[in-house]
Amino acid sequence: MWKPHIWRTNCSLSLRSERETMQKSECSGGTQLKNRVTGNDDQRTSSGTQIKHRNAVQRSKSSLSTSSPESAGKLHPRPSDKLNPKTINPFGEQSRAPSAFAAIYSKGGIPCRLVHGSVKHRLQWECPPESLSFDPLLITLAEGLRETKHPYTFVSQEGFRELLLIKGAPEKAVPLLPRLIPVLKAALVHSDDEVFERGLNALVQLSVVVGPSLNDHLKHLLTSLSKRLMDKKFKEPITSALQKLEQCGGSGSLSIIKSKIPTYCSICC
Q: Low complexity composition bias: which ranges (predicted)?
């Protein structure tokens, strides 16, 4: 026999059971979603912590490298660095191909060596300079005037000067003038002021030795001197050099100098 009140009771129980099941499912889903969000937050926090740690390590390495003696030396150069600011090891590995003079010097092609003194440097020749042939040694030393690093700068200019001081230098130097002049001109047109000064000094030294023999080649050099003469800091040394060229070249040199540098005043005036 059908009993309505029992059926209602069963339906109520069934509905209540379904409702509880749905609530549990929603709670479980919410808990999973919450855990997922929390996990993402934890991952973000962990990633942020790793990035901060990495940045801290990099800053620490940077501060250590800055505080190292080598870095300190670069930031605060030693007083002794001013003596030879552009020093190079001729026997060490270079970042670029060495110049012709540097290559010859490294292989022992220059028969002298640099002796470091407490006050100044000097050259020690392997044999008396008087016994040496100027060809090609004098030309090689002239090419070295364009060097910008020590010891090449000192060896080239001092070696050039000392060779021209030996007995019999005029007879050895005059035949080399056609090959020497282009090399000296390259030093006189160089953008480095110190290279220009070494070239100017070498020109005066050569003029003293060869005398009027240099007149035929002066026109190739005076254009470079005329351009540098516009620079105030070179006006005095160039004027002094021109006077020396006139004095050593005789009367024929004045007209050549005036043709290229009309503003030049003769020492005879």
A: 60-71
| Distance, CA of 172 to CA of 144 (rounded, Å) | 19
Angle at 257 between CA 161 and CA 210, to 5 degrees: 35
CATH code of the domain in which 226 resides? 1.25.40
Residues 169/211, Cβ–Cβ less than 8 Å: no
The token duo for 106 is 């490294």
CB 218 within 8 A of CB 261: no
| Distance separating alpha carbons of residues 186 and 195, to the nearest angstrom | 10
Q: Are 101 and 143 in contact (CB under 8 A)?
A: yes
What torsion do the CA atoms of 100, 104, 107, 109 make, to the nearest 10 degrees? 170
What is the number of structural domains in the chain?
1
pTM for the full predicted model: 0.65
Total residue count of the chain as it appears in this document: 269
Are 252 and 215 spatial neighbours (Cβ–Cβ below 8 Å)? yes
User: Which token pair is 218?
Assistant: 């002066």
Beta partners for residue 115, in sequence order:
122
Q: Residue 107 sits in which domain range?
A: 98-259
Own/partner pairs, 46-49, CB within 8 angstroms, 24+ separation: none
| Cross-strand pairs, 125 | 112
